[in-house]
């Protein structure tokens, strides 16, 4: 495992890939994120968010995340066939992030659609993704409001 993690050929960098992204591109502001950067940029970005993920803060979230996971697993009884990606692994992080940002349950369908457009765009769709440029605008306002609630 250590060998694989240290192997630069297994990098997420587009410069190290044969084809880069296939069939789509992200706006520069969205393209530079923890998921698709390598050191030193990854290290810089990680240091910016690491304070939000201290052991104490993560422990504080444990019950909330467990409750969301329990709800998702409980809902599986109603499905004829269960797909763990569709019914648990996909919705769990999106739901946690949505709740952390303060997006109400009524905003769930839009938030999921925005997330899908950003993380898994359809390369066969020729027109630009019109909702992508609008996505970040409401979220920072919500996040700032939640931060003010915690600090003030």
TrEMBL record:
Gene3D superfamilies: Cytochrome P450 (1.10.630.10)
Membrane-spanning segments: none
Annotated region (Disordered), positions in chain: 117-152
GO molecular function: heme binding; iron ion binding; monooxygenase activity; oxidoreductase activity, acting on paired donors, with incorporation or reduction of molecular oxygen
Coiled-coil stretches noted in the UniProt entry, renumbered to this chain: none
Family in the record: Belongs to the cytochrome P450 family.
Protein name: Cytochrome P450
Species annotation: Halosaccharopolyspora lacisalsi
Organism taxonomic ancestry: Bacteria, Bacillati, Actinomycetota, Actinomycetes, Pseudonocardiales
């Amino acid at each position: 495992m250590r060998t694989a993690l240290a192997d630069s050929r297994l990098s997420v960098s587009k410069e190290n890939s044969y084809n880069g992204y296939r069939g789509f591109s992200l706006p520069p502001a969205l393209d530079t994120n923890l998921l698709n950067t390598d050191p030193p940029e990854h290290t810089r970005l990680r240091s910016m968010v690491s304070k939000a993920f201290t052991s104490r803060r993560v422990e504080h979230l444990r019950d909330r995340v467990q409750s969301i996971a329990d709800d998702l697993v409980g809902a599986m009884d109603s499905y004829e066939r269960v797909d763990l990606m569709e019914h648990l692994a996909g919705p769990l992080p999106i739901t946690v992030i949505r709740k952390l940002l303060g997006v109400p349950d009524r905003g769930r369908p839009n938030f999921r659609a925005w997330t899908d457009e950003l993380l898994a765009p359809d390369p066969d769709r020729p027109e630009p993704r019109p909702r992508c440029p609008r996505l970040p605008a409401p979220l920072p306002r919500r996040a700032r409001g939640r931060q003010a609630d915690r600090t003030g």
